[in-house]
Amino acid sequence: MFKIVKREEMAQGTVIMNEIEAPRIAAKAKPGQFVILKANETGERIPLTISDSDAEKGTLTIIYMVVGKSTAIFKELQVGEGFQDVIGPLGKPTHIEKLGNVVCVGGGTGVAVLYPITRAFKEAENKVISIIGSRTKDLLILEDKMKAASDEIHVCTDDGSYGHKGFVTEVLKDVLDNNKIDLVVAIGPVPMMKFVSKITETYKVKTLVSLNPIMIDGTGMCGGCRVSVGGKTQFACVDGPEFDGHQVDYDGLMTRLRAYQEDEKKAYDEHCRLTGAK
Amino acid sequence: MAEKSAKKEKIARQPMPEQPADVRRRNFEEVPTGYTTETAVLEAQRCLQCKKPACVSGCPVGVDIPDFIKSIAENDFKGAIRKIWEKNSLPAVCGRVCPQEIQCEGLCIVGKKGEPVAIGNLERFVADMERGSGSDEIPAKASPTGKKVAVVGSGPAGLTVAGDLLLKGHDVTLFEAFHKTGGVLVYGIPEFRLPKDIVASEVAMLEKIGLKIECNMVVGSIVSIDELFEEGYDAVFIGVGAGLPRFLNIPGEDLIGIYSANEYLTRANLMKGYLFPEYDTPIIRGKNVIVFGAGNVSMDSARTAMRLGADRVRIVYRRSREEMPARAAEIHHAEEEGIEFHLLTAPVRFIGDEDGRLKQLEGLKMELGEPDESGRRRPVPIEGSEFLMDCDLAVVAVGANANPLLTQSDEEITLNKWGYIVADEETGKTTKKGVWAGGDIVTGSATVILAMGAGRKAADSIHEYLTLGW
Ligand SMILES: Cc1cc2nc3c(=O)[nH]c(=O)nc-3n(C[C@H](O)[C@H](O)[C@H](O)COP(=O)(O)OP(=O)(O)OC[C@H]3O[C@@H](n4cnc5c(N)ncnc54)[C@H](O)[C@@H]3O)c2cc1C
Ligand SMILES: Cc1cc2nc3c(=O)[nH]c(=O)nc-3n(C[C@H](O)[C@H](O)[C@H](O)COP(=O)(O)OP(=O)(O)OC[C@H]3O[C@@H](n4cnc5c(N)ncnc54)[C@H](O)[C@@H]3O)c2cc1C
Ligand code: SF4
Ligand code: SF4
Ligand code: FES
Question: Mean pLDDT, chain A, as a whole number?
Answer without folding.
Answer: 91
